[in-house]
Amino acid sequence: MPKYAPNKMPSSVKKQYFELLREGYKGAAAARVVGVSASCGSNWFIEAGSMIVPDTGPISPRFLTQNDRIAIADGLQAKQTVKEIATSIGKSFQTVYREIKRNAKPDGSYHPWWAHNQSLLRRRRPKEEKIRGSEPLRTLVREKLTEKWSPQQIARHLAREYANDVTMRACPETIYRALFAGLLGRREAKLRTGRTRRKKQRRGVPTLNKIKNMTLIHERPIEVTGRTVPGHWEGDLSIGRGQGSAIGTLVERTTRYVHLIHLPHGWKAPQVRNALITQTAHIPPQLRRTLTWDQGRELTLHEDIEALTGFRIYFCDPHSPWQRGTNENTNGLLRQYFPKGTNLSVHTARDLREVAHQLNRRPRLVLGDRTPAEVMRECLTCPLTR
Predict the structure, then answer these.
(1) Confidence label for 386 from pLDDT (cuts 50, 70 and 90)
(2) Are 1 and 37 in contact (CB under 8 A)?
(3) CATH architecture of 217-381
(4) I need a labelling partner for 85 at 20 to 30 A (CA). Which of 61, 107, 222, 236 fits?
(5) What sections of the protein cross the membrane (predicted)?
């Protein structure tokens, strides 16, 4: 029988050999099928770590497959660069760098079947939590939490102090999971935030619009941005202590004129709708063009408000307060009268009118040291053009 050099055979032959082993073939039988000697097959098996881990089947395309690892090994043998290898298999070069570093053999060489076996071993589930299985790691993490270190600080400390000991390494997520699972003792006072339970995690899951038939700010007329035509307002709620009370704030973009909405019966959608309809009725129709609001649930009934007030309502993007910058600035001014964390229900409608009166008669640098009341008066006496 001819002699075969174990590392000279094509990768396709080796791949078929290992596939047969995973199907349950004996080593000698698999070697006969692929046309090599039993000793050649044995050398391949030893080189792969003397074990064959069952493959669980198809996985997400973002993970490397056996074929990808074979291509990486062939590329390294052909002296290709990592970026060339990554391009050939359709992965990022960072993925290939991590793969070579993580799954190389102890001597530094990269063997595709060894690497694939290591990957399959790590993928096995269920798997014992790392902190549960290591008393030294658990003790150290518990001590640092007691010293008010954050999980991120602990993870960085472990990476620095135990750079060569993977058993004493833990990422922040591992520490959080162990803490909330009760592996690190009492959860109280362990985190600086004081949390004792895990927040819901929805990374990468888009949040559906809570308000039906919204018109987003990107569809708002371009004249609103220029601030040359009055009648375009921004609105928001200023929330009181314990979210038990609120005051509605409206500010006109061109004149900075402020109008406060009294909400004595709460600030859910029906109460806000009724208050906006009744308390903006005195505003001249030509000054009721648009109203920009955030995506708060208090404006769920925006279609009723539009129909009965004449405002065309536009909603900002989520978590984008700068899209209502004038209103945010006005809310800051209002804190002088309504400090944060106080009960806003004690203020009457007359109190709100007095506060708005003071703000509207305060000179503003952005208006050339004129007051919002003066600029609004000019808008009402001069012809309005679109």
Answers:
(1) very low
(2) yes
(3) 2-Layer Sandwich (3.30)
(4) 107
(5) none
